Amino acid sequence: MANARPTVFALLVAAGRGSRAGGPVPKQYQALAGRAILAHTLTAFLDEPAIDAVAVVIHPDDEARYRAAVPDHEKLRPPVLGGGERQESVRNGLAGLGAAPTDLVLIHDAVRPFASRSLLRSVIEALGDEDAILPALPVTDTLKRADTTGHVEATVPRAGLYGAQTPQGFRFGPIMAAHARAAGSPASFTDDASIAEWAGVPVRIVPGEAANVKLTTADDIRMAEARLSTTETRTGTGYDVHALGPGSSVMLGGVAIPFDRSLVGHSDADVALHALTDAVLGAIADGDIGSHFPPSDPQWRGVSSDRFLAHAVARLAARGGAVVHLDLTLIAEAPKVGPHREAMRNRIAAICGIDPGRVAVKATTNEKMGFIGRGEGIAALATATVRLPAGEP
Hints:
Blueprint: E1 8-14, E2 31-32, E3 35-36, H1 37-47, E4 53-58, H2 63-69, E5 80-81, H3 86-97, E6 104-109, H4 117-126, E7 132-138, E8 143-146, E9 152-156, E10 162-164, E11 168-171, H5 172-182, H6 192-198, E12 204-207, H7 218-229, E13 231-246, E14 249-252, E15 255-258, E16 261-263, H8 271-283, H9 289-292, H10 306-318, E17 322-331, H11 341-352, E18 359-364, H12 370-373, E19 377-389
Parallel strand pairs: 1-4, 1-6, 4-5, 7-12, 17-18
Antiparallel strand pairs: 2-3, 6-11, 7-10, 7-11, 8-9, 13-16, 13-19, 14-15, 17-19
Helix pairs in contact: 3-5, 5-6, 8-10
C-alpha cells in the first residue's frame, strides 16, 4: 500500500516591526495593490493543495491589524503571538503547530509576497529525501569586503555562494529540536536554515526564484506596487445543463421566471449562474463549481446559486483580480429570455460587483433538436474575462 501523503503546515513570520520601510504601520500590513502585503503573501500558501494548514506569527500589538488584513479561509489557523526576536517568534509558531500531527513545515517571511506555488511545491517535494531544504540563488554580483572607512579590502570569490530565500522547508521533528537547543545558545541566527546547520541538520539547496524578493525598504514596496500595477487578461469558459421537472418557475441568472416547469438540481439549478461560476473559476485555474460546492454535501441543497458566483468572484478578488466582462448564452426552447434580459444582467452585475454594461445575456433555441429541442432541459454557456496582476500564478 502506498505511503500516506505527509501533513504539511506553513508558518508565516509576521511579528517584526519593519522600521526600515517607514510608514505608519509595520510593513507587512502596508497596502500593496489595495491589499496588505501579508494578504498577498498568504495567497499562494492558502491556494496550494499540498499545504494542509497555515498559521501566522504576529506581534502582540497587531491582532486588530491582522484580523483586518487576512481573508477568511478554512486552512488558516488562529495567529500565534511572536517574541522579541525572529528566532523566538518562529519557536513560538512551531510550538503552536506541535499540537497537531505535523510531518513537514514551511517557514516563510511574510514580506515575500511573490513566492510562487511552484516554488512551494519544489520545497515540499525535495523534503521527500531530506530533513531541511533551502531555496537559494547563486550570487552573480562581484563581492567586495570593505573596512570600517568604506574602502575595499578584498574581492571575495563568489563560487559556491548563494543568496538564501524562504520558504525554507523542514521535517518538523528536527527543526523543532534545533530551535529548542538554540534557545539556550548565545549564537545569533538570521534564518531557520542557519539554526538547522548549527544543530547538525544537513540542509540541501534547491533553486530559488528571482521574483521572490523580500520587501525591506520603502523603495522595495514601491517597486512591488509597480510590478502589480501591470496586469494581464485571462479568459475562462463554463457550461451547465439541468433537466426540467415539475414546478411553476425557473431560476435563470438569479431571476425567477414564471413557467410551467422548474429546473431540477441539488441547489436552485440556476444553469446561468452555474456556468458563470465555472467561467470565473476557469479564468483563475481554481477548479470548478463541483470542487468548491460538492453536490454530495447536503448544506448546498436548495441554496441560491448567487452564493456560488459570489464565491468565485471573491476568489478572484483575493488574488488582486477583477471581472472585466461576462458573456452568457442560454439555450432553451422556452421560456422566452428577452423580457427578462435586463433583470438578469442587473442581478448578475450586482452579484459580481460590476456595472451591468459588463454583462451580456443572449439566448437561442436548439432548433427543436435533441433534449433541449424537446423541451426536456436548459443549457448555458458562459465566458468570463478577468484581469489579474501580471505574473500572478
